[in-house]
UniProtKB/TrEMBL annotation:
It holds the Pfam family Nitrate_red_del. It comes from Litoreibacter ascidiaceicola. Keywords: Chaperone. It comes from the Bacteria. InterPro entries: DMSO/NO3_reduct_chaperone, TorD-like_sf, TorD/DmsD_chaperones. SUPFAM superfamilies: TorD-like. This is Chaperone TorD involved in molybdoenzyme TorA maturation.
Amino acid sequence: MTTAAADLQIAEEDRLRADLYNFLGLLLAGPPDEMLLSQTASLNGDDGALGKAITSLARVANVSKPRGVSAEYNALFIGLGRGELLPYASYYLTGFLNEKPLARLRKDMASLRMSRAPNVFEPEDNIASLMEMMGGMIVGRFGVPASLDQQKTFFNTHIGVWAPHFFSDLEAAKTSVLYASVGAVGKAFMEIEKEAFRMTAG
């Protein structure tokens, strides 16, 4: 199948979903540079919960500087020994890193033809990677676009069971400023996705 043919099969709504997953993945993979902060500051949301959260994030990004956001990111996710939050499915679901949720994810990744990038060394069940995986599945970055049932199964198994809790923690974290707004966007988006998948058959 050509890329153009695959593109025709992806509805605009799904492309927007993928874009938001990828955007969250980018913000959570590392501190944003000046260009990403500028792009974030230009976003506009509607009057829904997600739209309001996006507008709030844009407002904070507009007054944020890369150096301050980098320090915030390090305090949240890296720290001395460990950051304020541990953004891994295994930790949220079992209290430990590298547990059964990671093994289950690796098995599902193999069946979906996903593989970890060679320059990435942290466990695959971190929130940034899972956001990127979901975005990639929707638009077919790992082959053909995933069916709605495949998306639902992956979301319910690997994301929906813990990501809403993580995003709530991120929103409330002591060192969160820009990332409090990222948490609000993530939480609102997860609620929309969870409800949309709940309403689909299968």
